[in-house]
Each structure stands twice: as structure tokens, then as C-alpha cells.
Amino acid sequence: MHELFTFAGLISHNHSWIYLSHMLLVAMIVMIMANITIKSMRLVPVGVQNLMEAYLIGVLSMGRETIGKDDAKKYLPLVATLGLFVFFANLIGIIPGFEAPSSMLDFTLALAITIFVYYNYEGIKRNGFAKYFGHFSGPVWWLSWLMFPIEIISHISRIISLSFRLFGNIKGDDLFLAVVLMLAPWIAPLPAFALLAFSAILQAFIIMILTYVYLAGAVHISDSH
């Protein structure tokens, strides 16, 4: 992907600079959308407000099924922002002259670590340090010596799973699009654009639902486990 033209590459060919500039661009797009929505709010939503309200209702409905009504509302700002950020970080790579920040492992790893730290923090905050880490020992006390390290490894593996899933899918999409553009740059890429746009939505959805699932597992600890 280094040989492809990017607008940011006109300033510097340093790949870290290219990804950083695109990441900041994505953040700017999300903030502009939020600002437009707030400034043009109406009783009967139209335009961007209508789109954003439909999106937030969908995310909230997803959360209700996963973590419950009250907690879905509490974590809605986090999950909805993550979804928008990841979606545009995926989608921007489809546009000629841009690269998807989410096709860089540093980006996806930082995102995964942020989610990991946050849901563990919420679990400790809600249940207390002893109870939260105590449930890692499992329901049977005499198996705690085995269950505890397994649970720790399982939670740490979520960082690898989240980061490599997003990185692998988007990097693969970028490479696929690059090959299609080289072989048939006019008509053939049109179905590929639709497919990659769907993939961008799907990966954002996966990040959101997994964040809700991890939060649910952290804050809703039963007394028996």
C-alpha cells in the first residue's frame, strides 16, 4: 500500500504521518456531524439529525438486549462514538487518495486496549476490586487455582482478538480494492465499493456489540459466579 497515491502523501511520505492525518480527519468528520446535529435540532428531525437519531436508537436497542435498559443508556455515548469512529475509519479507505486508519495495527491495538481498560475499570467500580477479580476464580472454590489464570488469559486475548480482527479485515479490504483498481480501474470496482462499504458497517457493528458484551460481563456479576 505504500506505492498508492494519497493526498496526505503530498506533504510527507512517512506512513505514520499518513495514518495519523487520516485518523485526525476521521475524528474531525465525527465531531462535525455531531456539531451539525446539535445545531440543527428540530422537533421533527430532518437531514443529519434524522440519520443520527436513527443510528442512536439502533445502538440503544442493541444495548438493551445485551446489557439492560439503564446501562445501555449509560454507555450509549461511548459505544455510539466508537461505532461512528470505526465506521468512518473503515470507510475512508474506500475513497481514492485516502487510507483507512483501521488498516494499521497500531490504531486497532490502541482501540482494543482502550476498550479493555474501560470495561475492567467499570467492573471494578461497580462491584469492587475483590468481588470483580474474585469472580475470575469460577463458581467452584477448589478449582480457582486453574480458573483464575484461564480467565486472565481469556480477558487479555480479547485485546488480540479485537485488534487483529479489525486490522485483518480492513487491511484485506484495502489490498483487495488495490488489486481490483489495478486490474480493472473503471467498471469492475463498483461492486467492490458496495461490498467494502458493507464491510465497514459490519466491522463497526462488531466493535459496538463486543463492547456492550464485555461491559455486561464486567458490571453484571452474579453472586454465584
Account of the 3D structure:
Helix 2 packs across helix 3. The radius of gyration is 20 Å and the shape is globular. The chain has one domain (8-219). It has helices at 15-39, 47-67, 69-91, 105-127, 129-134, 144-183, 189-219. It is an all-alpha fold and 225 residues long.
Order of helices and strands: HHHHHHH
Beta-strand portion reads: under 5%
Unreliable spans: none
What's the total count of β strands? 0
With helices defined by DSSP (H or I, 4 residues minimum), what is the helix count?
Answer: 7
Helix content: over 70%
Overall pLDDT score = 87
Supply the helix-strand structural class. mainly alpha
Morphology: globular
Question: Which radius of gyration do the C-alpha atoms yield?
Answer: 20 Å
Largest pleated sheet: none
User: What is the total domain count?
Assistant: 1
Distance between the termini: 48 Å
